[in-house]
């Protein structure tokens, strides 16, 4: 894809071009305001692009804006804030989309929710409501909810930024496990430990542009340009 996006006179994305291979985990880093979250929102058709194209499995999904809800069945997204329905239990939050969007029976959807809660390591929380869960547990329910639609691509928009430090690891562990299993992912994060552990490639963005793309080994081995190195030094130290 190669896309432009502006809000009024503010150009947020400037000819951003990248490719993500099947089963690849791509980590996107950069300072605040660099366009990272907007990039994900454009991929998920939550924001229309001003110019350019986004191809997903050979289809130009920028031409499918009127069917965005169908595209999102194949692209899961996890946000900074968990966005769970407070009046529904963990299992019911996960069941909602398969039942409403896919017409799945509640019994089948409940079986899927049970399996996914086990996958994110909180099977005992099926009947708990969001306000009874820690932040890390809520985010793992949000991941399970996205997985319930069996997406072909997962997008994570700084999924640990709203968490207390002791809860971050449990969420990153689940994300790393999914990457190891071959889930294609684009992850916006400042968690360099996760990037080192799970990323196949890392992109550095600044002021709406992709400044550098490199393998994880190259990034952490110092084979990056001076601007990227300064950013990494700030994050790592």
UniProtKB/TrEMBL annotation:
It comes from the Bacteria. One of its GO terms (cellular component) is plasma membrane. It is a peripheral membrane protein. One of its GO terms (molecular function) is ABC-type amino acid transporter activity. It is found in: Cell membrane. Pfam families: ABC_tran. Signal peptide: none annotated. Keywords: Amino-acid transport, ATP-binding, Cell membrane, Membrane, Nucleotide-binding, Transport. Residues 1-232 form the ABC transporter domain. PANTHER family: AMINO ACID IMPORT ATP-BINDING PROTEIN, GLUTAMATE_ASPARTATE IMPORT ATP-BINDING PROTEIN GLTL. Belongs to the ABC transporter superfamily. This is Amino acid ABC transporter ATP-binding protein.
